[in-house]
Amino acid sequence: MSTVCVLLATYQGAAYLPTFLASLERQRVPWRLLARDDGSTDATPAQLEAFARRHPDRVRLLPGAPPGRPGGARANFAALLEAALADGAEVVALADQDDVWTDARLAHGLAALRQAEATLPAGTPVLVHSDLVVVGSDLRPLHPSFWRARRLDPWGRSDLRSLLLENVVTGCATTVNAALLARALPIPEEAVMHDWWLALVAAAFGRIVPLGEPTVLYRQHGSNAVGADAWSLRFVVREATRPAAIRERIAAGWRQAGAFAARYRAALPAADRAFLDALLALPRQPWGQRRRTALQLGLRKGAWLRTLGLYAFL
To answer: Which residues does 35 contact at the CB level (< 8 Å), separation at least 6?
Structure first.
C-alpha cells in the first residue's frame, strides 16, 4: 500500500494542534508527515518537535519563517508542496492544524485517487476532495455538511470555467497525486490559495473527484484562514455591507486567472483559451459592456445570490 505524504502548515496552533496530530496517528494507511511552521510565537513549534521525536522515521520538519514574521498560508503550503515533490511523494494529503480527521480520511482519499488513476492515462493529474462536518472550537457539530452550508456543488461546478470564478475544493480535505504537483508547481504569488490553484490545474489537465462522505471535522474558531459561514440571510446582509471586500475578492480571482493564463494558455483547448481570453478582457470594458459580456459568457456561481453579487460588483 502507498504511503501518503501529509503536508501540515502551522501557525499559532498550539490550542488545537495536539488534537489533529492524535487523529493523524489513528489513520488506517501508512503515512509520513512534512510540517512547516510559519513563525509561531506560541507552543506550536515545540509540539511539532515533540511529535517528530515520537515518530522519528515518519516526520520531517522543514525550516519555517522567523518567529513573528509569518508569510501566510498560501506561501507556507507552497513550500510544503515543493518539498513533497522534491522528495518523490506519490500521494499527498493536505492538512490544517485546527481540524480533526476521521479515521478513514487518508484511506478514502487514497482509494478514490487510485481508482481514478486506473481509468486514466498514466501521468494524469488527479485531485480528490471530500465534504466536511462543520464544528465549533469544542468540536460540537454546527452543520453536517460544509458543502450544503456554503451552497457548493462540487459535482456540477468542477470544470475549469466554473472554477475560474469560484473554488469548491477545501485544501484540508484534499488528496492529490504527483502528476498534479508536477503540473501545478510552483504556486504563483497571484494564486488566491494553494487549493484553488491545484483545483484549476486538475480541472484543466486531469480530473477532480468529489467524495460526498465527510472525512474532516472542520473546526471554526474565529481565526481560520478561510471560514465556513453558513449561507444565511445574516451572512448575505453582512457580505452586502462590505463592497470593498467583495471587489477585492473579485479582483484577486482575476489576478489568479491572469497567472493561470500566463502559464497554461497555450496548452488549453481552443474553446477554453477563448473563454479565458474573454474573461480576462472584462475588467478593461466599460461598465455596461462588462455585464453584457458576462451574460454572453454565461458567468455564474453556484448560488444565485453569489451570482447576483458577481454582476453587482463586476
So the answer is: 7, 8, 9, 10, 48, 52, 59, 60, 61, 62, 80
Q: What are 166's strand-pairing partners?
A: none
Q: Note if the pTM is more than 0.85.
A: yes
CA dist list (Å): 251 to 58, 73, 92, 120, 254: 41, 19, 30, 35, 5
pLDDT score of 237: 61
* Helix 233-240 with 243-264: angle, nearest 10 deg: 80
HSE toward the beta carbon, residue 34, CA cutoff 13 A:
26
Length reported for the chain = 314
> What angle in degrees, to the nearest 10, is found between the helix axes of 287-297 and 270-281?
160
Q: What is the pLDDT of residue 38?
A: 97
Q: Do the beta carbons of residue 305 and residue 237 sit within 8 Å?
A: no
Contact criterion met (CB below 8 Å) for 109 and 128: yes
Torsion angles phi and psi, residue 225, rounded to 5: -65, -40
Ranges under pLDDT 70 in the chain? 222-241
| E-strand stretches of 186-294 | 207-219
CA 111 to centroid of chain Cα atoms: 20
C-alpha cell at 286: 466599460
